[in-house]
Amino acid sequence: MTTDRKILGALGERLAVTHLKKMGYKILEVNYRCKLGEVDIIAYGDNTYIFIEVKTRTGILFGRPIEAINHKKQDHMVRVALSYIKAKGLAQCNYRFDAVEVLFEGRKLSEIQHIKNII
């Protein structure tokens, strides 16, 4: 991954965290890592643990950001989430998988969209 893409991704994650906080979610983890991989954001709200993938793009020429969350990525999110749930002793909790799309037009933020229940 190039440095520009890393910077864009990190900016998208920071904007997603701010957006989720404004919506009333409590942010528990950012870039949660375990031996199985990483989830961008783990939040809590509505009595539910929410595992969130953030996708940031500078346009939609190649499709919406959410289209990059394929079955392989979804399976990865589930494995990491189950590891987190086990590690934290949350076996009886409610949980779901969401995405946040962050779109820029040039250097200007054009859209942030929170999409619930992507899996």
UniProtKB/TrEMBL annotation:
The keyword Aminoacyl-tRNA synthetase does not apply. Pfam families: UPF0102 (PF02021). InterPro entries: Restrct_endonuc-II-like, tRNA_endonuc-like_dom_sf, UPF0102_YraN-like. SUPFAM superfamilies: Restriction endonuclease-like (SSF52980). Belongs to the UPF0102 family. Gene3D superfamilies: 3.40.1350.10. It comes from the Bacteria. This is UPF0102 protein SAMN02745975_00660. It comes from Geosporobacter subterraneus DSM 17957. GO terms for molecular function: endonuclease activity; nucleic acid binding. Keywords: Endonuclease, Hydrolase, Nuclease.
